[in-house]
Amino acid sequence: MADKQKTKVYLDGKLIASTSDPKAYVAEIRKHRRNGLIPNELNVAYLKSLNEVHINSDKGRVRKPYIIVEAGKSRLTDELKQKLKSKEIDFNYLVRKGIIEYLDAEEEENIYAAIDEAGINSKTTHLEIDPTSNLGLTMNATIFPEYNSIGRHPISANFMKQSQGIYATNFNNRYDARGFVLFYPQVPIINSSVFRSLNLQSHANGQNFVVALTTYYGFNMADAVVMNKAAVDRGLGRSVFFRSYSDEERRYPGEQQDHFKIPAPTTEGYLGEHAYSKLGDDGIIEKEVEVNEGDVLIGKVSPPRFLEEQTSFDLSQERNRDNSVVVKSGESGIIDNVMLSETAGATKIVKVRVRNVKIPEIGDKFASRHGQKGVVSLILNQEDMPFSSQGIIPDLLLNPHSLPSRMTFGHMLEMLGAKAASQKMQRFDGTPFSGNGKERIEEYAKILEDAGFDKFGDEVFYDGRTGKKFKAKIFQGVVYYNRLWHMVSLKMQVRSRGPVQILTHQPTEGKPRKGGLKFGEMERDALVGYGASLLIKDRMLEQSDKAEIWICKECGDIGYYDYVKRIPICQSCGSSSNLEKVEISYAFKLLLDEIKAMHIFPKIGITKE
Known about the structure:
Layout: H1 2-5, E1 7-11, E2 14-19, H2 22-34, E3 43-47, E4 52-56, E5 63-70, E6 73-74, H3 78-85, H4 91-96, E7 100-104, E8 113-114, E9 126-128, H5 137-140, H6 152-162, E10 178-182, E11 190-191, H7 193-197, E12 207-213, E13 224-228, H8 229-233, E14 239-248, E15 251-252, E16 256-257, E17 259-260, E18 290-291, E19 296-298, E20 300-302, E21 309-310, E22 316-317, E23 321-322, E24 325-326, E25 333-342, E26 348-358, E27 365-368, E28 373-380, E29 387-388, E30 396-398, H9 409-424, E31 428-429, H10 437-450, E32 458-459, E33 461-462, E34 474-483, H11 488-491, H12 521-530, H13 533-542, E35 546-552, E36 558-562, E37 567-569, E38 579-585, H14 586-597
Parallel strand pairs: 1-4, 8-9, 11-31, 12-30, 13-28
Antiparallel strand pairs: 1-2, 3-4, 5-6, 5-7, 5-9, 10-14, 12-34, 13-30, 14-26, 15-16, 17-20, 18-25, 19-24, 20-23, 21-22, 25-26, 27-28, 27-34, 29-33, 32-34, 35-36, 35-38, 36-37
């Protein structure tokens, strides 16, 4: 019975021992680790709910440094801080001396950590090195996250990853599959210590927008935003999209090889003379040539799949096939650069980069660093935009209802702070947990009052269309906005006719395959509810996979039409006079075939309408 009450000890998931006093056992290991008797890479945790001790020393664990607290006092004294500043000691010294220790996710369950020294009490075991260490690098690069709802943080982090900017300083020498580069990236007026430490100004990914919180005749309902056309014409949010294509002259068995050249008209799969009109003599397109969907960028001829193919006169003949690289469906642009090189196997390789300038248009997506996303619903002439009493015309109109419901008060604080910083002509700090909100607002309010503005950022506005003064004051400020790579020009997809899948005879799926938009079950249900039966038939049969098949009235099996005898025949019962042509979905015919494959004979009964 006593053995059952003992706590099991696991090392990297393997049972190695048991103990009757797990807390003392764990405390002893931690004491030895802090004194340097055992490696500091080792972590130990007592999981009370499982009554198990877990010791971890394996690779790949994420660990975080904490300052050790003993008897209500931090081990990192002012004297050690001073030595650290003067570089007499380094961070590793503090780890070796047991002042700072790295904890993994399991050991973190055993600690009681304080955010700062003011929060230390008798139960505190550890202290955060800095309050910002609660958050990852992405969130630390934003500002004022502590004033936003926690649900906005992952959304904001995702938007930062999707934003257009300078992703690499050598982007003009790279041939990435696709890349976005913002034309005029700016450093945010309010940034954080991590933003500065990581030197993110070299990879800026947004611009400072003048934003007014107001509705505009219903155009910016919900998340939609209205943009100033004059600002867009001056380069606001403008970017360039790079798409790279590559190909190589591969070698095949039997001394066969691909060749870069303009394919001859006799080549199998020849695309037509117009498709190759922009190629040079070597079969490769040249720089600064304008290309559109379907144009050939790299002309390539590949050997036949089979060494000999029969011609119409039963003569054996080798036929090369066209394997050229063409511009993707729905894309266009100008050839930015062409690179010729060799692979490790000494085969020629060609890379072509196409550029396309992307000017903000209706349907493009913008987002602030606080998770406030918006799709452009209207690009308005400057003379129709609302303007302040000082003549300032905002770049963007944001619906005020989008702020209280999402509790992104950091967005409003940035508007006020960046507006104040603009008057001071300097950048302000917005590092997470670095200041008191009330004191910040008072500081910003004083700067704005001294500059002649309303202390809370409200301004008198006039309607650009009517010239009338708005009854209410409108909150206006400056916000750092990111342009995201969700652009309507890259997503717009439409087709009337096009390719179908060989198996199902239904239209292909996806923009690259010239596919249609899916008409799914829920869309069908909407039409059923509306009673539009003929429209359902048109969408799901006529425009999809309608098939005309012969059904035998005697045995109920599917027959076929013999074009030599010019009669329908049932291969099951041999009847040729009692078959009827029926329109069905080809997917239903496939279902019947699958049922037959399971040795079940489905019979179709036909009745008169």
